[in-house]
Amino acid sequence: MKILVVGAGAVGGYFGGRLVQAGRDITFLVRSKRAEQIEAQGLQILSPTHGDFAVRPKAKTAAQIVSPYDVIFLSVKRILLALGGLIYGTYKHKQNE
Q: Are 90 and 22 in contact (CB under 8 A)?
């Protein structure tokens, strides 16, 4: 199952990172500067409750994404939620219609 996590801040980074840690096929959809940062440094999660870890997930910009996804996890600030319909329509799997 291919999962697209839109945003890699506190919420998207944590849950997407945990899914990567669990071996899931995760791609983060982020802005170009954040994609470069994740590619260079990876993603580090600090959690006193569930333990710290670091992963190197796939991070892409909108222009780099070409294949559809089975699940789209939106984790962006409220102002960007208006783009949710556009993102869903663009990257969803045709079977999910």
A: no
Inter-residue contact 93 to 70 (CB < 8 Å): yes
Residue located via tokens 């990172």: 17
E strand residue ranges, the chain:
2-6, 25-29, 43-45, 53-55, 58-60, 71-74
Give the long-range contacts of residues 41-50, CB within 8 A, separation 24 or more.
43/8, 43/13, 43/16, 43/17, 45/13, 45/14, 45/17, 45/18, 47/14
Kindly report, residue by residue over 13-54, the tens digit of the pLDDT: 999 999 999 999 999 999 899 999 999 999 999 999 999 999
Sort strands 53-55 and 2-6 into parallel, antiparallel or unpaired: unpaired
Q: How far apart are CA 5 and CA 13, in angstroms?
A: 8
Q: What is the total residue count of the chain?
A: 97
Asked whether 91 and 21 are in contact (CB, 8 A), the reply is no
